Amino acid sequence: PLPSVFFCPRSGAKLIAPLGCLVSRQKHTLPDLPYDYGALEPHINAEIMQLHHSKHHATYVNNLNVAEEKYKEALAKGDVTAQVSLQPALKFNGGGHINHTIFWTNLSPNGGGEPQGELLEAIKRDFGSFANFKEKLTAVSVGVQGSGWGWLGYNKEQGRLQIAACANQDPLQGTTGLIPLLGIDVWEHAYYLQYKNVRPDYLKAIWNVISWENVSSRYALCKK
C-alpha cells in the first residue's frame, strides 16, 4: 500500500500521496514536477506547463486547505449544514489536487510508444489491441463536454481495465470506484495556449509524452 505521506527529495517538503490519502490536518502541498517545465516540448510547451502547475494546481491545493480547515471547524461545532455546503469545494479542489498529482507523473519527456508486459497484455485483452485502446480513450477525451478528464482505470471488482470520462475535477476513484492509471486533462487551460480550441490536436500530441512506466507501476500496485 502507498504511504500516506512521502518526502520530496528535491524540496524536502512533505507531500500527500498521489491517490489522495488524507492525513489528519497535514496541509496539502504542491508536488514538484519530476521534470522541467520545458521538458515535454514540442508536444506541450513550457508556458502551458508552468501556468498549469504553478497557478492552476497551486490554486486547487490552496483552496483545498481552506475548505478542509472550514470543514474541521464545522465538524467541531456539529454544524451539518456547513459541512454539506462545503462538500462541493472539497470535491472540486480535492479532485483537482488528486487528478493533477497523478497527471504529472503520467507524463514524461521519455514517454510515448507503447506499454510493455502485463499492462500491454491487459490492454489487448480488454480492448482488442493497443491501437483500439488509444482510439477509444482519445474519442472519450475529445467527447468530454466543457471541462473534464479522460481516464484509463482499473475495475478491481471485475479485474479489468475500463475507460471513463469525468466532468470538471471529479476524481475517478471517488466518483466511479475505478482506480486511476492514466488521466488526460482536457480542460482548456491544459492546451489552449498551444492548440487553441483544437482539442484533437492536443490529444494526438499527448501520446508522445505518456509515461507507460508510470502507468504500468500503477497497474501493478492496484493488482496486489
TrEMBL record:
Alphabetized PROSITE patterns for the sequence: SOD_MN
Record-linked Gene3D superfamilies: Fe,Mn superoxide dismutase (SOD) domain (1.10.287.990), Iron/manganese superoxide dismutase, C-terminal domain (3.55.40.20)
EC number(s) from the headed UniProt entry: 1.15.1.1
Catalytic reaction annotation: 2 superoxide + 2 H(+) = H2O2 + O2
EC top class, as a word: oxidoreductase
Cellular localization per UniProt: Mitochondrion matrix
Manganese/iron superoxide dismutase N-terminal domain ranges (all copies): 27-108
Record: residues binding Mn(2+): 52, 100, 185, 189
UniProt cofactor(s): Mn(2+)
InterPro entries to which the protein is assigned, alphabetical: Fe/Mn_Superoxide_Dismutase (IPR050265), Mn/Fe_SOD (IPR001189), Mn/Fe_SOD_BS (IPR019833), Mn/Fe_SOD_C (IPR019832), Mn/Fe_SOD_N (IPR019831), Mn/Fe_SOD_N_sf (IPR036324), SOD_C_sf (IPR036314)
Domain Manganese/iron superoxide dismutase C-terminal: 115-218
Swiss-Prot/TrEMBL keywords: Manganese, Metal-binding, Mitochondrion, Nitration, Oxidoreductase
Subunit field text: Homotetramer.
Biological role stated in the UniProt entry: Destroys superoxide anion radicals which are normally produced within the cells and which are toxic to biological systems.
Protein name, per record: Superoxide dismutase
Organism per entry: Halcyon senegalensis
Record lineage: Eukaryota, Metazoa, Chordata, Craniata, Vertebrata
Encoding gene (name): Sod2
